[in-house]
Amino acid sequence: MKSPIEEKTLTFKDYKSNYKPVWCPGCGDFSVLASITKALAELKIKRENCALISGIGCSSRIPAYTSVYGFHGIHGRALACATGLKIARPDLTVMASGGDGDGFSIGGNHFLHACRRNVDLTYIVMDNQVYGMTKGQASPTTQPDWAKSKLTPHGTGLTAFKPLSIAISAGASFVARGFAGDPNGTAKLIADGINHKGFSFIQILSPCVTFRPEQKQWKKIVRKGEIEASDQWAEVAAFLACDDGFSTGVLYKDERSVFQPDLIETYSIKDIENSFIV
């Protein structure tokens, strides 16, 4: 006999909130939002069992545009919050999202240690090689000779941050790169990252058509990486050392122990209440 109350099968639309995104027309983050909701629908994750944490920036607005639990944190601290949440609530599906400035500049230290801790969460970084929300300054992943910012009229002269190489060397156990112009392929990467037991880092090339209009050409450059997902650290590191930054797919995947401390209650709500009793 069927239950009189049947649970509804959610579609990707059910994972979107009623808030309308305020991104610039043509921003790649629209497609990334679609990819996240498609991945959640594909995995049939209950909305009340999922949390999306972000920092500051255009891409960090994503939690407000979804119907799962969300937390819009402070600049660069998304991974710190996401790590604490996952350790405290290992039953939840925890994701963190942000941009290249939020994640690799002020949040760079948290990024390194999140990789080596290998907590079971998924970190999605929308990389457009620019600070879009604050009007076009160079970011950590900007090319050293890009000279269209008023703050760096002659280019930064600094070596660009290489997120995937850094992630692998720091200890991330799942490393992938996607392209916002391929929402279905990116949704598959996100679903694979969520399913992976450990820290999953997914860099998504997400064009900023306002401050980096030349990035519209990325769709002609991106391609499937000429390497299969491997647990051979040296092989993948050598590939990335010669890569131009446009190879997509799951590039590194390793199965190793997940950091999850035992949760032992040492201080209860009653103890807190008693501390206020004079």
Q: What is the share of helical residues?
A: 25-40%
Biggest sheet features: 8 strands, mixed
Radius of gyration: 20 Å
Q: What sort of overall outline do the alpha carbons produce when their principal axes are compared?
A: globular
Q: What structural category do the secondary elements indicate?
A: alpha/beta
Number of domains: 1
Summarize model confidence as the mean pLDDT.
92
Helix-strand sequence: HEEHEHHEHEHEEHEH
Q: How do the strands line up in the largest sheet?
A: 2-1-3-4-6-5-8-7
Termini gap:
58 Å
CATH architecture: 3-Layer(aba) Sandwich
Beta content comes to 15-25%
| CATH class designation | Alpha Beta
The CATH superfamily title: Thiamin diphosphate (ThDP)-binding fold, Pyr/PP domains
Instruction: Outline the low-pLDDT stretches.
Output: none
Task: Figure out the total of helices.
Answer: 8
